[in-house]
Design brief:
The complex is a heterodimer of chains A (236) and B (71). By secondary structure, chain A is an alpha/beta fold. In chain A, 36% of the residues lie in helices and 11% in strands. Chain A is built from eight helices and seven strands. In chain A, the strands form two sheets. In chain A, strands 1, 3, 5, 6 and 7 form a five-stranded mixed sheet that branches. In chain A, strands 2-4 form a two-stranded antiparallel ribbon. In chain A, helix 2 packs antiparallel against helix 3. The longest helix of chain A is centred in the N-terminal third of the chain and has 19 residues. In chain B, 25% of the residues lie in helices and 28% in strands. Chain B contains two helices and three strands. With 71 residues, chain B is an alpha/beta fold. In chain B, helix 1 links the parallel strand 1 and strand 2. The chains are: A alpha/beta (236), B alpha/beta (71). At the A-B interface, helix 3, helix 6, helix 7, helix 8 and strand 7 of A face strand 1, helix 1 and helix 2 of B.
């Protein structure tokens, strides 16, 4: 009798989208679904795709993927009581001036940087997005590196690389997460008073303890040094 | 330092766990917190709505309330 390869289990199939051989950061949430849920997700996706084939609404396909993404991540932290960054005494600092007089600083964990100022993770120049994905474990153990992005940086000089989320939208249009143009527009329209000279970005898939203990306080000081009255945070 | 954050719905449970001051939750897929590529109108609306939350002086977690749309 001829030996056959063992069949792939549903669990192996689900987890293969999470940095496995089918790695796809849009669908890595499949790891956090049960086998039954994964089956239901595929069934709904197939139905919406079939409907689209016959002239249906593309939004229906997006909606299926979105709904299951939300469901998968709703439980991915496990018991909320065990969440290591749980905090109940975070101070709330009031804004002390009208919004149209306030200077805003943008800080995002999107992994953007300016062409020619690559943070070169692990000393590697020109790291690709695929390489960043393959080294996600190294990233989450490493310390963060903050990239300064001058507010007047031309769009075509802005790059993005992040092994933790699908960057294709941010690559097509960085304003899906790094809204430099919109912030400039809000200043021009008198909605906010101004902006700091730089926006800042880092790869959020990084050692979270260092962020809490070291970088968070340091970046708050940076905001003060930049003359910020408030910070807009866009975690990814 | 006053802060406001923008989270996608998939991680919309995190601001409450971390006790963040002010958060806007968008009904957008991961990687597109402010809107779809090319949807400048939505992106700006999200940013402006988030910034107005800076005027709140109590913990605020607010749903943006509009579904994701392609540009």
């Amino acid at each position: 009798m001829e030996a056959t390869e063992p069949s792939e289990t549903i669990e192996q199939l689900r987890t293969s989208f999470f940095y496995g051989r089918r790695s796809d950061l849009n669908f890595k949430f499949a790891r956090d679904l049960s086998d039954d849920e994964f089956g239901d997700f595929l069934s709904e996706l197939f139905a919406a795709t079939a409907e689209l084939t016959d002239g249906g609404d593309p939004q229906a396909v997006i909606d299926v993927a979105y709904r299951w993404q939300v469901q998968a991540y709703a439980g991915h932290l496990g018991d909320p009581a065990d969440f290591p960054h749980r905090k109940s005494d975070t101070p709330l600092t009031p804004l002390t001036k009208p919004l149209n007089e306030a200077r805003i600083m943008l800080l995002t964990s999107s992994g953007h940087f300016v062409d020619g100022d690559d943070p070169e993770p692990f000393g590697e120049p020109h790291m690709t997005q695929a390489e960043a994905e393959s080294r996600i474990i190294d990233f989450v153990r490493a310390e963060a590196s903050l990239s300064s992005i001058p507010l007047d940086t031309p769009d075509d000089q802005i790059r993005v690389r992040h092994g933790g989320y699908p960057v294709q939208a941010a690559t097509k249009d960085h304003q899906v997460v790094l809204p430099l143009g919109h912030l400039r527009g809000l200043v021009a329209d008198g909605v906010i008073g101004g902006l700091t000279a730089n926006a800042y970005s880092f790869v959020g898939a990084t050692a979270q303890g260092h962020i809490k203990r070291t970088y968070g306080p340091a970046w708050a000081e940076l905001a003060k040094e930049q003359g910020a009255d408030a910070v807009l945070l866009v975690p990814i | 330092m006053p802060t406001v954050s923008v989270y996608v719905q998939s991680f919309g449970h995190i601001p409450a766990l971390m006790g963040l001051s002010r958060s806007l939750i968008t009904q957008h897929p991961m990687g597109r917190p402010l809107g779809a590529p090319g949807d400048a109108e939505r992106q700006r609306a999200v940013v402006e709505r988030a910034l107005t939350l800076l005027l709140k002086n109590e913990q605020s977690i607010v749903d943006f309330g509009e579904p994701y749309r392609r540009a």
